[in-house]
Specification:
By secondary structure, the chain is of the alpha+beta class. It contains one helix and seven strands; from the N terminus they run H-E-E-E-E-E-E-E. Strand 5 and strand 6 form a beta hairpin.
Length: 141
């Protein structure tokens, strides 16, 4: 009886492994086109994958920060809908001049987005606007 159950378990594990999809390229899932349990035709697209080039986010900075943000500044990002994903880093790769609304568009390379992050999620960001290197802190008095 035990031997039969072991054979059934091995068969079930093999069935699960046959259903597991593996992408031939690295990247991030941008859109899931089919849901688990759906029937699909051979050759049908199941997901859309963004390639392995750096992912980019668009952030808007308010008018008070214009002129303070510089290229290659560090950005700490977090996913608003999923705080459990933690924080990850980005770097500003482009600054678009202020729009009529007074906001400035920042293009940010996402250096290492966490697993579970999906393109299109809202992000919160903290942008480094000043960095002092080789500075000496002097007492006030």
């Amino acid at each position: 009886m035990v031997a039969l159950r072991k054979v059934e378990l091995a068969s079930a594990e093999l069935d699960v492994e046959r259903c597991r999809l593996k992408s031939p390229i690295t990247g991030v899932v941008a859109e899931q086109l089919a849901q688990p349990g759906n029937r699909v035709s051979p050759g049908a697209a199941l997901v859309q994958i963004l390639g392995n080039k750096p992912l980019e986010a668009s952030l808007f900075a308010d008018a008070t920060s214009i002129g303070q943000v510089v290229l290659h500044a560090k950005v700490i990002l977090s996913v608003e809908q999923h705080p459990d994903l933690g924080q990850f880093q980005g770097e500003i790769n482009g600054i678009v001049p202020a729009t009529q609304s007074g906001n400035q568009l920042l293009r940010v390379d996402l250096l290492d987005p966490p697993l579970g992050w999906i393109a299109g999620m809202s992000l919160s960001a903290q942008v480094e606007i000043a960095s002092l290197e080789n500075a000496t802190l002097l007492p006030r008095d």
